[in-house]
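Milestone M4 deliverable, item 7.
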Amino acid sequence: LDTHGLLPVLDSLGDLFRDNAFATSFLAAQRELIAQSASYGEYYLKFTDSLFGEFGLIPFNPDDPNCKAVLRPLLRREISEGVIARSCKLGTEALQSLGYEPQVNPRELNLFYHHQSGRKRLIRLDEHHFSLADDSQKWTLAELLNEVETSPGQFSPNVLLRPIYQELLFPNVAFVGGGAEIHYFLQLSGTFKEFGIPLPAIFRRISAFYADARLVQKMMRTGFSFAEFLMPLHELEQQHIGRKASEQPISESAFVKLRSALEDISQAAGGFDASTQTSIQAELHKMEKMIGHIEQRQTKFVKSQHENDLQQLRNIREQLFPGSTLQERHANFLPQYFRIG
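Output delivered:
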């Protein structure tokens, strides 16, 4: 990718943050880096180095032809045997048994090819024939394996082969990653074993939330702690309504007594014949549902009385989970950087 289109973005930022010394300095530095870069990748490497280089960050490009040569044994086996689709099955099933959906479903062939018109997915037509996904180029098995030997740089791992590749190049004692990355590694537990590459210990990276002083003050006025705002919104609302129990026309104890009476009747009904018991239990079930409906109506009434409070809770939580996603997936660091440097 080239750097075309980056300068207009910097111009827009300059318009948004006029008379801001931090913004002026930052944007000038980016213009200089872009001028020195032949591609977006080169610019981004320089950009991250400007932010983190002083802390010891070492950039590395896994597309380096020398690295791709190391990938040859993995490429041969994936092309010939379809190792990933077969070997990650157990890891995927184990995750599903624990209630987690797999992050990605493995393909029969988990590779891309750098064609002259772009990076394209390789597909297996049958045991001995392969092609690009758009059918623009085809190979026999022998031809594709020969290309692995002569031009390994033409091949590129997909999201499932990438963890294997990076651990082959840089074996880790531990891998620190986000939720999605951890899913990949867990799905691939059998694949690491298949390739004879050690699976590192896996740690969830830190996630952080940013709340400025004004937001913190709003939180404090609600009576909820910061941690409580991390619970699902419906639970937060339920807790708020629960705190208003004294304002509910029908007390919680009244519902408890009703349900207790129904339970007594249910147990006493055991003295009737089977047909009568069935009929009584059906009626009791209807009564239980009616009690639930009454509770729901009361909750709806109390909510309507405190709609302003509930809306404030929603507004606060929206700043922590914009669009129901993690704040870190939505927020940009520049506004804070331009504010405090």
